[in-house]
Sequence to fold (174 residues):
Amino acid sequence: MKKSIAFILMSVLALGLSAQVKIGYANLEFILKNMPEAQQMNLEIEKYRKSLEEQISAKQLYYQSLQADYINKQKEGYAESLLNSMIRQLSDLEQEIQTDIYLADEKLASMSAKKLEPITQKIIGAINSIYEREEYTYIFNSADGTGNSIVLRGPEADNLTFVILKELGVEVEE
Fold:
């Protein structure tokens, strides 16, 4: 009977040792900021944002010139039919500008998502590779989307940020 209990205890102990949890963490925001593809993406998005802003600014300047023209014509006593026509034109242009602003935001968000997708997949691929090769049980992002740390304290040996960057072929000084 004692041999059976000893065998069971040894088996449970062996199972407990083999089921150890291996946890790693990484700062995905830091990884993303240091990837050349992400830096290029940011430049392209910024260039596109500026071009959209320039188009909207041109319409706003045109709107302001039409508005000044309307005020001058109103002061000079132009016919009510002409002034009403100008008011409709100003109103239509103002609505067009608001629509352009809304669409510009949508276009930028769409472009960002489209360009970010392959970069994100590349990072996920590197994480999965490390996860399988190093037999991790969990790999966490060490910060939330606002830059606040989620991992309050952990062994530096479990920080996989630079390991992931190396897997991606990105060299960054630690």
User: Anything to note?
Assistant: Residues 21-167 form one domain. Confidence is low (pLDDT under 50) at residues 4-17. The radius of gyration is 30 Å.
